[in-house]
Amino acid sequence: MSSTPAVQLVEVGPRDGLQNEKRMLTPEVRLELIGKLVAAGLTAIEVGSFVSPKWVPQMAGSDQVVRQASGIDGLRASALVPNLKGMEAALAAGCKEIAVFAAASETFSQKNINCSIADSIERFRPVMALAQANGVAVRGYVSCVMGCPYEGPIAPPAVAGVTAQLLALGCYEISLGDTIGAGTPHNTRELVRACAEVAPLSALAGHFHDTWGMAVANVQAAFDAGIRTFDASVSGLGGCPYSPGATGNVATEDLVYLFDGQGVRTGVDLDALIAAGAFIDAWLERPSASRVARARKATLAAAHS
After folding, report:
1. Catalytic: 171?
2. Is the distance from CB of 140 to CB of 175 less than 8 angstroms?
C-alpha cells in the first residue's frame, strides 16, 4: 500500500487562525506550534503573512517565522502576500511558496482590500512575475465562494470566473473559501461542478468555515465530488474580521477523524494533533473548537474517573 496520503491537509492555523485571535503570540511560540504540527505529520502549513503589522498585528515577526519554518525538513511552508511590497519581504525571508487572495464578491473585495475584483487581479500581476522569476510557487484563494456578509448568496459561475483568472495568472492551486460558513453540501457540489469546468479537480482545494455547523459535511461533499486537498485549522482557530459572526475554520482534528473513519490516508497522527491543539489553546486561554478534541478529552476523563 502506498504511504502517500490520499488527502492533503493544508494547515492554516498559524496564519489564518492566529491572525483573528485577540491574544498576540511571539514568533517563538508560533514556531513551537508549527514544530508540533509537523511532528503530528502535517507537511503543508501556512505559517505567516507579509501584511502590515498595523493592520494585522498578530502576524508581526512573520519574516522570522518563515525563515525558520522554511528550514524544517519535509515541510512546505507558505505565507500570505497581499501586494508587491509583501512579495519582496517574502523573498527576503527565503519564502518558497506564497498565497494570494481574491474574492468572488465585489463588496467583500472593497471591504477587505479596498479595490474591485478586477483591480485585485491586476495588483497580483507584478507579484506573480516576481514569484516566477524567483521560483516561488503561488497558491490562490477565492473568498466568499458560497455567500457574502454584504451581498448574500454568491453564484457558482462568479466563483469559477475568479478561479479561472487566478489560474491564468499562474497559481498552481485555488483554494475555494466559504468565508462566512454559509454553504451546505448541495451548494458545495454545485460549486465544485462549476469550478471543475475551468480547472482540473487536482488544482482545486476546499476551505470551509464552521459558522453554521456545516463545515465537515461540506468537506465530505467536496471529497465525494473529487476534491482531494482541504485547508483546516488546528483547534478550529480562526474567523474573519470582515465577516461579522463568522467563526473559525474547520478543525484539522475533525477532518483527520472524518477521513480516518473512512480509511482515507491523511498522514496525520490524531493524538499528536490534539496535543498540538491543546498547546496553542493554553497559550490563547481558550477552549478547543474541535468537536473531536473535546470528545477525546471527555472520553479520557470518563475512563479515569
Report:
1. no
2. yes
